[in-house]
Amino acid sequence: MHWHLLGLGALGTLWADRLLTAGLQVSAITRSADISTQVERRLHWQGEGKTLQLPRFNPEHTAPTQTPLITHLLVVTKSYDTLSAFDSVATWLSPEAEVVFLHNGIGPQLEIAQRRPDLNLWVGTTTAAAYRDPEGEVYGISLGETELARWPGGSLALPASWDKVVPPITPSDQPLRVLWKKLAINAVINPMTALLQCRNGELLSTDTRRQQLQQLCSEIEKLAQALDIPLFSEPLYTCVCRVAQATAGNYSSMCMDTRLNQTTEIEAITGYVCRQAQALGLVLPGHQALWEALQR
């Protein structure tokens, strides 16, 4: 089974390795001027380093053919790049291609679902964690838990051969809930680590920080309840603490983007949360403060 990967950042590199380990073929989609036939990424996992060598597919340097090249696509781009990145490969997607979205935030995957009803789409939430240092080396921290739901719901099917991925993927028939579970955790951990410039585990290091986490979790739960979207079977704060502990050594993507003075996903995560609250007339002071602070 051949999967194309769109978004070879830290998390994309980790997922490429997971799919390769499961015995799947993986090609990396790039939009750079590099015309070499392979893409290399250095991944450190459990104290050992390895070099991933992936066949390169560059749509800008590939002539369209009568037979579409991409039948299975995994999207792990930054949320603000998702639509343009997807559009760059849309010509090469076969009808009824399987597409999995694991990017942060809510919005691009829903727009693509409306535009391309012919595709078989999955949306997912994952607590897998990795970060890339300034030299480009990727450090895998945790494989975490991953939940996938077929869009628009009603099916527990997984994408082709994803039943071979370890640890096992959990199927769901509630895609909107899956997206909100990912959003809820990201909206608490990512902006806090970006603002404090700390690793995930350091969010639990003081009573003050724990109180901030509790406030943010309570606000998200208030919003989700107003939207009639069930989250977890336990308090969000419990889930956030568990993820922060499991990924204690990780720097969130938003933390690294802020550190490197790059565009962050604050609009797709905290901005989305605040806009949803404003539409309902709700006030989320903790998230609003983070949104304003990280927009500067």
**In terms of structural class, how would the helical and strand content be classed?**
alpha/beta
- The strand count comes to 11
Strand order, largest beta sheet: 8-9-3-4-2-1-5-6-7-10-11
**Span from first to last CA?**
45 Å
The helix content is 25-40%
- The best one-word shape is globular
Let me know the CATH homologous superfamily of the largest domain.
Answer: NAD(P)-binding Rossmann-like Domain
**Reported CATH architecture of the largest domain:** 3-Layer(aba) Sandwich
- Largest sheet properties: 11 strands, mixed
EC number: 1.1.1.169
Function: Catalyzes the NADPH-dependent reduction of ketopantoate into pantoic acid.
Keywords: NADP, Oxidoreductase, Pantothenate biosynthesis
InterPro entries: 6-PGluconate_DH-like_C_sf, 6PGD_dom2, ApbA, Ketopantoate_reductase, KPA_reductase, KPR_N, NAD(P)-bd_dom_sf
Describe this structure as you would to a colleague.
The protein folds into 2 domains: 2-173, NAD(P)-binding Rossmann-like Domain (Rossmann fold); 179-295, N-(1-d-carboxylethyl)-l-norvaline Dehydrogenase, domain 2, CATH 1.10.1040. Helices cover 38% and strands 23% of the residues. It has helices spanning 10-21, 82-89, 108-115, 175-196, 207-226, 236-246, 253-259, 267-279, 285-295, and strands at residues 2-6, 25-29, 38-45, 48-57, 70-75, 93-101, 120-126, 129-132, 138-142, 146-150, 170-172. It starts with a strand and ends with a helix. Pathway: Cofactor biosynthesis; (R)-pantothenate biosynthesis; (R)-pantoate from 3-methyl-2-oxobutanoate: step 2/2. One of its GO terms (biological process) is pantothenate biosynthetic process. Residues 178-295 form the Ketopantoate reductase C-terminal domain. It is an enzyme of class 1 (oxidoreductase).
